[in-house]
């Protein structure tokens, strides 16, 4: 399973950037074919590409399991992460630049990961998640080290309505002295969701940025798989 660069070129990245500015996330619908989702899901039962399973309830993260991939990543995911990076880095450089640092993120993933590894962050930031019926994922941010890339992607690998009910991806933004703002993203098989990892830059009046969290509502029937692709290593 290989990925053609044209698939990234066809995405309307200006619209993705606009969405992220406005609400902190953007959905690229049906970017993966169902067959690709099934192939990725099949990796779950192959033990040789994953680190040990984490039971989410043991850590009070929710109900379900996740498995970090170890390096080398499966070819498709390696390609996905590397080819997606320049586009999200471009958006991140527009949104998170400062006058002191107008281009905070390097143009290639290799360069960004080199910095992560130099900071001792060596665990590939890519994992697969599985939620059984009644599974869910509590509000969280995927930030475990000092170096963090401000956007992350979630690949939805199961079909809403036929394979699972409920299980909607949610985001929440918190500002001091303001009720939290919540959005239901949802997401269906093949969708790639690009979202803020920890904060969304704000312009104009009020606090400059709020804390950005995501989570997954309870799967009320069936089971749901997803894949989390961070651009930092942990
Ligand atoms: O299952 C999901 O849709 C979200 C999982 C998650 O927390 C992530 O991808 O970082
Ligand atoms: Fe997450």
Automatic annotation (TrEMBL):
PROSITE patterns: FE2OG_OXY. The keyword Disulfide bond does not apply. Keywords: Iron, Metal-binding, Oxidoreductase. Gene3D superfamilies: q2cbj1_9rhob like domain (2.60.120.620). Pfam families: Oxygenase-NA. Transmembrane segments: none annotated. Belongs to the iron/ascorbate-dependent oxidoreductase family. This is Fe2OG dioxygenase domain-containing protein. It comes from Sulfobacillus thermotolerans.
